[in-house]
Amino acid sequence: MNLSLSRTQLGSLFAIGAAFLFSSKAIFIKQAYALSPLVDATLLMALRMACALPFFLLICWFNREKSKGLQAKDWGLLMVAGLMGYYFASWLDFLGLMYISASLERIILFLYPTLTVLASCVLYRQKLSVKSMLAIVLSYGGTVLVMLQEQQHAPVQEHFWLGASLVFASAIAFAAYLLLTPPLIQKFGSWNFTGLALTTACLGTLVQFFWVTPHPLLLVQQLPVGVLWYGLALGFFITVVPTVLLMQSIARLGAAQSAMIASVGPILTILLAVAFLNEHLNFWQWIGCLLNIVGIMMITLSKKKLAN
Q1: DSSP per-residue string spanning the chain
Q2: Mind telling me which residue stretches traverse the membrane in this protein (predicted)?
Q3: Angle at Cα 211 formed by Cα 192 and Cα 84, nearest 5°?
Q4: Roughly what angle, to the nearest 10 degrees, separates helices 102-109 and 283-307?
């Protein structure tokens, strides 16, 4: 009996593994926030990136030959992309999770493919197809349905809308990053680009932490050990490992197919939030989540057809 996996099967397993680990991010963040009042978004981001930085530096080192001969403009765009996609977008996401549930955070963040489509229409004057318009209506309608249901039970209304706005801003920042990346990946190579972009984001995060925190090292020493473990987990298991798995999946399946498999992300986050955070979605929220996922899958499928 042949137990070896085909290229497609292996790529699918990598994509599922990446989706599961990325979906766990909000769970780890919410649990870290609950451990100590000293923990905020800037601190937790710094712990995460400090743990991830050595691994991305290694990726840069092993791919250093591909960086030769590139222009200063290319390096500048790469730095902007890295800071936009993995520093600014992540920091906004971490901030938003201080005010809203992990389930809602994932659903709002999952809107980023629609934002790239809308941005492409504006930048390249492309017309939206009827199918794309329907997909956008479904995804945003479902998201609003989930938001309104959660908003009714929010203890502080201002905090709820602040959190939702921060996560939506994170989705916008990540969509901008995705628009910048295709030409950069062609010039730097996928592995080299990933290592350099994430190294830039790690350094930007650490600079921010040391800049805004009066006594950063003393603060870290005062943290419960559990927070440090969560920072390590966020850095290695929720950043480095899924990034590598996703790259391996894309190499075997292509970006569109990997993105389709990643569409299980919101469901995984919701199930994990129910299991570990005692979050619960009512009937209308499940309907909203389903509408969101169907809309995003329609957008992703239309992108795949255009690519072909």
Answers
A1: ---PPPHHHHHHHHHHHHHHHHHTHHHHHHHHHHH-TT--HHHHHHHHHHHHHHHHHHHHHHTGGGGTT--HHHHHHHHHHHIIIIIIHHHHHHHHTTTS-HHHHHHHHTTHHHHHHHHHHHHH-PPPPHHHHHHHHHHHHHHHHHHHHHHTT-SSHHHHHHHHHHHHHHHHHHHHHHHHHHHHHHHH-HHHHHHHHHHHHHHHHHHHHHHH-SSHHHHHHHS-HHHHHHHHHHHIIIIIHHHHHHHHHHHHH-HHHHHHHHTTHHHHHHHHHHHHS-----HHHHHHHHHHHHHHHHHHHHHHHHH-
A2: 42-63, 75-101, 107-125, 132-148, 160-180, 192-212, 227-247, 259-277, 283-301
A3: 35
A4: 30
Q: What is the pLDDT of residues 41-84, one digit of tens each?
A: 999 999 999 999 999 999 999 998 888 888 999 999 999 999 99
Radius of gyration of the chain (CA): 19
Reading the block at residue 153, the tokens are: 């039970």
Convert the pLDDT of each residue in 233-273 to its tens digit. Answer: 999 999 999 999 988 888 887 766 777 777 788 889 999 99
Label residues 230-257 b or e (16+ Cβ within 10 Å = b). bbbbbbeebbbbbbbbbbbbbebbebbb
Whose structure tokens read 């997909």? 135
Domain locations in the chain as residue ranges? 8-307
Rounded to whole angstroms, the Cα distance separating 165 from 169 reads 6
> What's the full length of the chain, in residues?
308
Q: Degrees (nearest 5) of the Cα angle 306, 253, 88?
A: 75
Q: What's residue 249's pLDDT?
A: 87
Helix axes 112-124, 157-188, angle to 10 degrees: 60
Listed as ranges, residues in the chain with pLDDT below 50 are 1-3, 305-308
Residue with tokens 């591909």: 66
